[in-house]
Amino acid sequence: MKGIQFRVGTEENDYNIKMSRAESFLDAGHKVRIQIMFKGRENAHKEIGFVVMNRVKEDFKTMAQVDQEPRINGRFMIMVVSPLPKDQRIRKFKKVKFEDLEEDDIEHNEDEELEIENLEGSDETKEGEAENK
Length: 133
Description:
The chain is an alpha+beta fold.
């Protein structure tokens, strides 16, 4: 069994990355435990956790079935999902790998590289001047 953990305030991009990772676990045939951790005042608003869990359930409809409905266990809300049969799985979240990017897609700032070289060179000249004194 694999697991992913959310917080109540998990932002959109982090949510997408975690869901993509969970989909890859499901695609490999593993069950996934989804956990939401509450801290401090978040404990008074557990209903927000149910909103997040319902969103996860909706996003996993094409990849998984819910084995264990969301339940609260102390500071955590836990739900367990298992993968659908291979022929029924449809991924919703696509994973972008760094190797897939072409050299043109990666931005380089030559001015910053020159500034770094100049700064490194100025440190060496300062050391040389200190030795000459």
